Fold:
Amino acid sequence: MHDYVIVGAGSAGCVLAARLTEDPDLSVLLLEAGPSDRNPKIRIPAAFSQLFQTDVDWALRTAPQEHLDGREVFFPLGRTLGGSSSINAMMVLRGHPADQGSWPAGWSFAEVEQYYVRSSAGPFPLAEARDRSPLTASFVEATVAEGLVRRADLNGLETEGVGFVPVSQHRGRRFSVANGYLHPARRRPNLTVVTGAHATRVRLSGGRATGVQYLLGGSEELAPAERETIVCAGAIGSPQLLLRSGIGPAAELADTGVPLAHDLPGVGKGLRDHLANGLIAATVPGIEAISGER
Structure:
């Protein structure tokens, strides 16, 4: 029995595990479906795309998109300690302040900015990219010449414009949330981390979450929680786990045959994400560079 059971060792799970175990009287169990983050390519910034569709990536695809001519979109999601912060492109761009204006009290940009600053000044430092392509600087200068505002900080209150994106790197290597929060906390005896543990259901008793069922090595295990069960399985994994546990919109659960435990209409709704669109610049023999003349 642990005081807290956390599902998912991604960006949120790593921070919570570190913060909670600062109290030596609390015991925390952190469950991660994927393997440890020992893959050497995780540390190499230029190798991030080589992590896609491997054992550290859930490698999902969207449903066919009506406005993309019916195409599916590749949806990479981290499946290792550090979650997507261990496989992403390391660009640190926070949500636009205006988007958080409609969020509940306590979550506006002005209220959470102090925690962004606290994190970037300590466990999760930001840096400028060390190997910046000359094309990047040329692109920024060209857009400024065309009238866009140059922004020194793309994570400030005013973000419309152009500038260089800070990266989650340290001395030229990826610096994930696991590096900043989880690995230092693993020295504490009150934190237990289990990898390869795929959560399948939140256990409920009297309307209260009392633990998590998970698969480990083909066997079903139970992790009881004395105080709280915390679901940090990501934008896809968290609602999926809740729905599988009977927590979600009653009508939709009825269609799937999952017994209703708690009618919660918002589960699985409101996801916002961006498309990943790669641009490749290459010099083609026989073709001269395009001039700046119109």
Q: What stands out?
A: DSSP finds six helices and twelve strands in the chain. Residues 73 and 92 are 22 Å apart (CA to CA). The domain at 2-90+169-263 is CATH 3.50.50.60 (FAD/NAD(P)-binding domain).
